[in-house]
Amino acid sequence: MGIYLRQLTQWLAKLLVGGGFSQINSTYLSEVIIFILWVLFSFVAYYVTWKLIRKLVIPILKRSKNQFDDLLVRHRFFRRLSYLVPAMLIYFYNEDIILHIKGLSTFISFVANGFFVFIVILMLDSLLSTINDYYDRFEFSKDHPIKGMIQIIKIILYVLGSLFIIGTLIQKDLSSLLIGLGTFSAVLLLIFKDPILGFVGGLQLIFNKMIRIGDWITIPKYGADGTVLEINLTTVKIQNWDKTISTVPTYSLISDSFQNWRGMEESGGRRMKRSINIDMDSVHFVTEEELVKFRKIKVLKPYLQKKEKEIHEHNRINEIDPSVLVNGRRMTNLGIFRAYLVSYLNNREDIHSTMTFLVRQLQPSEKGIPVEVYVFTKTTAWAEYENIQADIFDHILAVIPEFNLRVYQFPKSSDFSQLIKRN
What we know:
Layout: H1 2-18, H2 23-63, H3 67-74, H4 77-82, H5 84-97, H6 104-136, H7 147-169, H8 174-180, H9 185-191, H10 193-207, E1 216-219, E2 224-231, E3 235-240, E4 245-249, H11 252-255, E5 259-260, H12 262-267, E6 270-278, H13 288-294, H14 301-317, H15 333-346, E7 358-361, E8 369-377, H16 382-399, H17 413-422
Antiparallel strand pairs: 1-2, 1-5, 2-3, 3-4, 6-8, 7-8
Helix pairs in contact: 1-2, 2-5, 3-6, 5-6, 6-7
């Protein structure tokens, strides 16, 4: 091919001389024209190569069962591979065209060499992205993502490639450039501060198993509450429950606090911790008439039988005078209500009886007596959990009046109207 190009250049030079150009100008002009035509031919060769790959090679790869080659196609590996054709044609044959223009052939070789290196870097970039996507298809990738590592390798590739291209253009070897960069190390550290911190933070997150793809995490500082989609070099991508996306600096998960709900999901139970305030004025000792009513409640029968026997025995042994209410032991409507809630929750199939199970009073305040339900549901799914919680507290609110108790709430406008009417 080189012989034909030289012959073509010489023929064009003779043709230009015959047209009235000087020998030297004809030589220079013919070399420039043939080189431009060769560049155009090189990119036509690229176009033809890419068409052949797209029409013949890629359909075969897509029909194969191997998923790796499909990812190579997605990340444009073969498209970038076809760019090697013009790079090699220009690099290997420019000296057969440019023979007399001093320095131009060398400069073109340097540029073609840099172009060749750049294409190789792009191909390696595609290959690394393919490896990362292929790795992410395995289950263990959630615990040990490699995206941050891949991004570090890409940065190193681009930095070394850029230095090599610059060194080629200014005719300096890579080692001398690297030595010279020592004086700019502080600047480089400042420029790459976030990637370095992100890389260190990502390694700590992965190796300490603090976070993985698919975890539900909450980061109040950044308003993030949702599922981890991606852990990369500088950021962690989180899809919030409202379907928005939050990006959080990777290193902030090491330097700041966050909450990971993985333990809850793996335990198979989700905590329900909610209270209702009872009006203290409605709490009283139960009367015999109320006990008759409460004995008809099926889930309360075992508790009432045991409690009445226990109280009666205690009062008999201590010779308590039952005519005075404060003497001895008595049941209260609030105590019976708490016992009812325990039995009611125990009889629900969607509540864990083996995990922490409490129905308790909290510190009374000016807003009444808080009665708190502290239990775990058998589902961790958000929607199901909320439905269970709503069902339970719907029932509690509806059943409170049956125990002659009242829910405390701030005075309503209607309360003031009734007060004015009374006065």
